[in-house]
Amino acid sequence: MNNSPEGATTSRRGFLGLVGLSALAVASGGLLSACSTPAGPRPGSGGATAAALDKLTSLTPAHVPYAGVTPDIVGQNGAPGGFTKYPATLVDAVTAKPGKGGHYKAMTPLWGPLPPPLGDNSYFEAVNADLGATIEFNILDGMTIIEKMNAIIAGGDVVDITMIPSWTVNQIPQFGEAVNQLFEDLTPYLQGEAAKKYPLLANITTDAWKWGVFNGKLTGIPGSYTFPMGVVLLYRKDLFDAGGWTAPKTADEMLALGKEINDPKKKRWAFGDIKLSAYQIFRAPKEWILSGGKLLHRYETPEFEAAVDFMRKLYEGKLIHPDIVSSKGANGKELFKSGQVLITQDGFGGWKEMLEQMLPTKPDFWIEALPHFGHDGGAPGYHKSEEPGQYTFIKKGLGKEKTEEILSLLNYLAAPFGTQENMLSVYGVEGKHFTKNEAGAPKKTELGLKEAPPTYFFLSGRPDAITESELPRYVETAATWYNEAAKHWAPNPHEGIRIQRPAAYAALEQPTEDKIQDVVRGRRPFSELKQVVDEWRKDGGDESREFYMKVLQDNGRV
Amino acid sequence: MSENRVDSVPAGDLTSPAGSGTAAPPAPLTTSAPPGPAARRTGGGARTGGRDRTGGGARPHPLRDRLRRDWQLLLMALPAIGLLAVFHYVPMLGNVIAFQDYSPHVGIAESPWIGFANFQWLLTDQSFWDATLNTLTITAFQLVFYFPIPILLAVLLDSVLNPRVRLFVQSIVYMPHFFSWVLVVTLFQQILGGAGLISQLLRANGYDGIDVMTNPDTFLLLVTAESVWKDAGWGTIIFLAALAAINQNLYEAAAVDGAGRWRRIWHITLPGLRPVIILLLILRLGDALNVGFEQFFLQRDAVGREAAEVLDTFIFWRTLVTGEWSYGAAAGLVKGVVGLLLILVANKVAHRFGEQGIYKKS
Amino acid sequence: MSTRPAWEERPSLPGRLTKGLTLSVIALIVLFPIYIVMLTSLSPAATVNEAGGLVVVPDGFSLAAYRELFSGGVVTRSVLVSLGVTAVGTAVSLVCTVLAAYGLSRPGSVFHRPLLFMILLTFLFTPGMIPSYLLVKSLGLIDSYWSLILPGAISAFNLVVMRAFFMNIPEEVPDSARIDGASEFRILTRIVLPMSKGVTAVVGLFYAVGYWNAFFNAILYINDNAKWPLQLVMRQYVQQGQALTLNGASDTASAGALPPNLAIQMAIVVLALIPVLFIYPFVQKHFTKGVIIGAVKG
């Protein structure tokens, strides 16, 4: 019932491929030659590709910033701005009804409770009514999105609108080619001035749009992209203030502080898992770095070595919570919230999420990101996540009319914070799905929590901001902190190039990381780190270096 | 080296239903025994005496006679065989991607064929052998220290006379089976971990905390303890059913003859359970290269790759994370072939000891 | 209140003490963690946050986690889906397995060895996810409840185990019925099955539990959220907050008023135990000892 005629043809092709085993004979022919040791490239290694997106900006929409709402803390250097006060009146950003009465299916993952389906959900009804079209969601289990997407792509049966997180995209082999077969090329609709028809999509920056180019065609609409910090070091400001401790400014201070605040007897440990942050404190590169015309991998840099040595000391001093040490399933957030861990690492979103969870029952709870510092008292080198968090694709072959209707709907859903459209599509109807507090900030009601999880929100992108104006202190701290962070990006020679990693390089990562973990956790002496890196070079690291170097040469960066 | 490779030939054939399913009995079963299958079959018939009366008794049954005799039985097997053929064997053909450089988007029909290259890469990969060795070690250890526990527990539970106590204990011991591995590991952590109840109790009394969750040397004990806690109770159910099937007259007769409790367990209970025990043992051997994924994935960093890398975690990072489907399929086939060989050998050994095994020698 | 047969000697006092002690220790080892799980599911948000993990010492009582799970029709409807799939699936699986296990249990019957071998191979070689998906799709079973039943309907393990139990029945029993001209189906239903209630109940339990707990087939084959089974709906509750970490989106506004994640997770675990706890006594009833074989003979 969900299969359109197109789906039927592709399925037949897939099924024939499944049973059409005439080619099996070819395989048995290879039997006799199978005794020698492997020669030639390893299967799967042909997939490595690189596309310099910087050169593709001619395909993307002309950037026209939307002037309707501006935050009171302005974001600098690509950092998000902050709203310490809720806008008194909401802007009506889309005046004409975007929809023409169409009915579209949309697939989007969800990490949270399933809402009641269309027909049984007043939030869906309200948003669809305002859209002037019906969007019916097929919600996917967020944790298994890779498996599901692989199956869907192999089966070739996508629905009208599909959202795929970018990390999923990067784990699907030859996604670029699959995209061109399954999803509509939006270049004719959105390239340059054409995007003026969709002003809120044109409000998305070119830096985000360029990632929507797959295989030379503008196919994906970039989703949330305004938070380029991968991880943030958070600390229990409330407990620090109570204990009279101060935030560290160097790696040595951090180690000394850790020893001071660590107290297993009181069930209190200094750190959670802070590995990625440690690399950034020591300014180890995210992946590669150009040094004197040569390409060095982060494993090969002294900064990385120092970071490993630092982490090793944390483990040696038993400063990391034992639960974090003993299981990947340990819940770092819970430990941090309870005060068993004083400094931890989380996504930027975790900061406000934990505040929102804790403040209702524990009003003096307060956490903040550690002030920026490098290991030597200088600046840190943060690893910037360049790619947007997700992409939205439109099914290929729907025809001009439907594609344009869908783009209008996505334009509506791209309305930024402070607009009526944004409020309705994120929170639902006032008085029903949310109520406003004295500050004017919305808070979902029980019905809103049940019926209105992030669904429409995931279907489009928009410049984001720090908008928790019900917590002005948080907005101020976080926005200021982010503006400062955005000054300290670590250099990345491959910035703006979409790279499908060579399989040998990808396969090398886990064994090498395992060996480094052995060193960090004291199962191997620190002196063996050099040997680990040598093995990495020999097992394919050097080969990968050539590939990555060639990418730079091809793009005239060396 | 080359002989080892040739051994993997059946691997390819096994994926096709025509190869081994409906034709003659599989070769490995017959190779080492001198008489051919037909001779052995009639031998078996003779041994079981007059059992064959309904079959007509002609020594080499022509196929048609046997079909006429057994068609009802075949008909009964048909639904299950049909379901397996459609939903298992047809998609199992997809395992031919082990001989391809496959991409889901390109499909099987158009992915290039590369012969045995995936197997070559796999079998020359040191990480694969490390993982295999770990897996086999864990299997062997658990065969000795885990496998007997459900049997003993079942005998113990069965001996409880009060039916209410029996139902109560039976009902609770199998509950942990329904806990996910994340929860089981978390529970162990909360009790035995470095910040767990015992550690905190020790610290409160001036001792150091314990560290059993991160010690690579005792990891084998830890995972076995976790498995016992989670699944030993569930494992008793099958044995409880087998115990119920033992003829109670035998116990009574033995008791009348003066055999005590322990002698009755030894001479009646255990022999009564033996066919089921042997069967499960053989099936477990076929599963020797599967020790589970999640349990090891969760605790892999804690004790390191050397102690905790098993085949399933290896396959996960080596194929799923890197999107190398073909390589994963090759590893799956190798696992299956090894399991098959182990089952066949174990079945053979069982026959030697006069046991029925998975199927009778008949 | 004891089922000790007349011929069995009175248990000795030390024997009874040892047995009682062993059982108590076993019960304790199992029950203590279960207690932690239940307690956490019944604890208020503040207590769970304070504990930083599962709650061991009770502090306050709250049904918020359970209320959250059952608010809205999503969970209730998925319970019906799961019940239906489990009931139909178990029936299909059990019937096919019993028939095949019996059909292949007669020594020397034609083709039984190759067929058994074919079944055994399915235990060792598993089909890949994508081929299975393509098959189900080409059969038109996407979004059909049958896609949750048919692909895994036959377990080679259950079939082989059941067959082993059937084979332990002395051959004279069915053979004598054959001489009397009974059809194989009649022998199975009138003689073999009544003698194999225990194993039939166990295999039925294995299948039922399998269907009840399954979620991966639903992830692959069911796009329509209204048809999601309970386990899949429950999984979603466990994932709260993960999207935030994944893409840093700031405005998803899903936290706040929700009860703590961990309490909900544990409530899900507890809810998953209830149906099984309810079914087990029915299974155990069939473990009754009788002089089964003797009765048939007599």
Automatic annotation (TrEMBL), chain A:
Signal peptide: none annotated. Belongs to the bacterial solute-binding protein 1 family. This is Putative aldouronate transport system substrate-binding protein. It comes from Planomonospora venezuelensis.
TrEMBL record, chain B:
One of its GO terms (cellular component) is plasma membrane. CDD domains: TM_PBP2. Residues 132-346 form the ABC transmembrane type-1 domain. It is found in: Cell membrane. Keywords: Cell membrane, Membrane, Transmembrane, Transmembrane helix, Transport. Residues 15-41 have a biased composition (Low complexity). Residues 1-63 are annotated as: Disordered. InterPro entries: MetI-like, MetI-like_sf, UgpAE/MalFG_permease. It holds the Pfam family BPD_transp_1. The chain crosses the membrane at residues 73-90, 136-157, 178-198, 232-253, 265-283, 325-346. It is a multi-pass membrane protein. GO terms for biological process: transmembrane transport. Belongs to the binding-protein-dependent transport system permease family. PANTHER family: BLL4140 PROTEIN (PTHR43227). This is Putative aldouronate transport system permease protein.
UniProtKB/TrEMBL annotation, chain C:
Its main location: membrane. It is a multi-pass membrane protein. Keywords: Cell membrane, Membrane, Transmembrane, Transmembrane helix, Transport. GO terms for biological process: transmembrane transport. GO terms for cellular component: plasma membrane. InterPro entries: MetI-like (IPR000515), MetI-like_sf (IPR035906). It holds the Pfam family BPD_transp_1. The chain crosses the membrane at residues 21-42, 79-103, 115-136, 148-166, 262-283. PANTHER family: ABC TRANSPORTER PERMEASE PROTEIN MG189-RELATED-RELATED (PTHR43744), POLYGALACTURONAN_RHAMNOGALACTURONAN TRANSPORT SYSTEM PERMEASE PROTEIN YTCP (PTHR43744:SF9). It is found in: Cell membrane. Residues 79-279 form the ABC transmembrane type-1 domain. Belongs to the binding-protein-dependent transport system permease family. It comes from the Bacteria. This is Putative aldouronate transport system permease protein.
